[in-house]
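Support case: user asked for a sample of complex input and structure output to validate their parser. Sending the pair below.
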Amino acid sequence: MRWLGSLHAEWTKLRTLPSTWWLLAATVVLTAALGAAAASSVTTRICPTPCNADTTKLTLSGVQLSQAICLVLGALSIGAEYSTGTIRTTLTAMPGRWRVLTSKAAVLSLLTAVAGAVGVLSSLGLARLILPTPPDGALLRPATGSILILVLVTLLGLSLATLLRDTAGSITLGLGILYVVPILSHLVNSPTWQHRLQRWAPMPAGLSIQATKNLGALAIAPWPGLGVLAAYAVGLLGAGGVWFRLRDA
Amino acid sequence: MWDVPLASLSMSDASIEVRDLRKRFGRTLAVDGLSFRVEPGTVTGFVGPNGAGKSTTMRSLLGLDTPDEGRALIGGRPYHALRTPLLEVGALLDAAALHPARRGRDHLRWLANSHGLPMRRVDEVLEQVGMEQAARRRAGGYSLGMRQRLGIAAALLGDPAVLLLDEPVNGLDPEGIQWIRALLRHLATEGRAILVSSHLMSELEDTADHLVVIGRGRLIADTAVADLLAAASGDRVRLRTSSRTEAMELLAREGGTVAVVDRDLLTVTGLPAERVVELLSVSRVPFAEVGAHRASLEEAYMELTRDAVEFTSTPAGTDEVNR
């Protein structure tokens, strides 16, 4: 019963802020629009029939940007509680700190999953209209994987903001982890290190779930790759939870 | 939706107890071995200058801060042991703690949801604090007084037997101050235990039955307001007269100690009021008013803290030496 109460409270908190809905709408639009734009860039010249390019991955490339919105959504959900001071109200109503954090995580996951599903399905639908040879075959793994990426990045934002107790700081750190590490991998000269960064940095590893062609060339296989991102999100959420429990509010 | 009976902590169990509480933040000792108890049916004023440790004590009672030593109990139990905390303790810590983009009513809604309270209860407390209209607006546009009212509504939501209010009078207009005084008196007569902190003693005049005065994290006084006022008032008599010099000479000759308060106002010690009237009448010294002097709470507080200064100044001194 107490869990139901916490979940209900966190759901009401999220849904009564206009920013939640703006961010979720932006996730859908960015995912679909960028996917459609990427799909329109495909011409028969670079992709003759039969096409060798991974059009599924291309169609879902909007996720690479819309995940940043999810990071913000996750970070705001607890960062704003610290900046406004409502975290104390939350903890007097729900003194179980793990319960608060997991309820937030559950509600955020559900909302992001729904928005992600709408975005991903729209991308695939638009691609069918745009592409000369629409993505076919095994769409289930890249599609559900893309939704899971968005959910995990939201949790990453929540974890970082729980650890840092600061929205701006956690978003900056989160963007760094997501985007700067892959850029670094292009800057290092050593192929060994390039390979390692592609394998263990959360974003490149997670995005391998979208690949449908030439899987042998991937630095990490699709599901293990998503597992790397999940390990970051869940590991940091656990660390955030321990820290949340131990510190004075 | 499930229904939770209101007031799960019965009024007779309503108590707040702090025992040997100690809490250090870095080098500052915020609370230093504090003990006191708040009984049901009383409004206890929790007074001390800013930084005396009032908020830390309240946060410890609410399970937000973990004390280094000692216990902070509500109805004999630590906060985290309460199954339905909002039904047992109502707290107002920081009225400004509202998300500016959330409507006031929605703030109460999520609190109600956390305990499965019906929405009817949200509307009831909003009506009780006079915020039915304003609660439809986003909290970013609220005045401090409106935030205080919403915070009090949140504290009352679960109809709790124990109330902890940190500086609830701050930011209220005179009408609001009257309102909250009446409300607190009313809530206490219902048998609730109420702890109200303030850094201004005058705010608690006519509201508090009991006072817990702290300074630098230590207890300075734990006393009934009536006793404190009686002690501070002493056996002084107030006398208003236009013939100040004559009256002073006469009363001093008869063994009174006379002090000048104002141009036509004197206080007399050592003579009962009837004797003063008798002496003045016999000697035909005109006077307008004679009565027992009643000290204000502020005066009593000043007297109290004056004695406590030496006692409280040591901890900071040792801190400086340790650096």
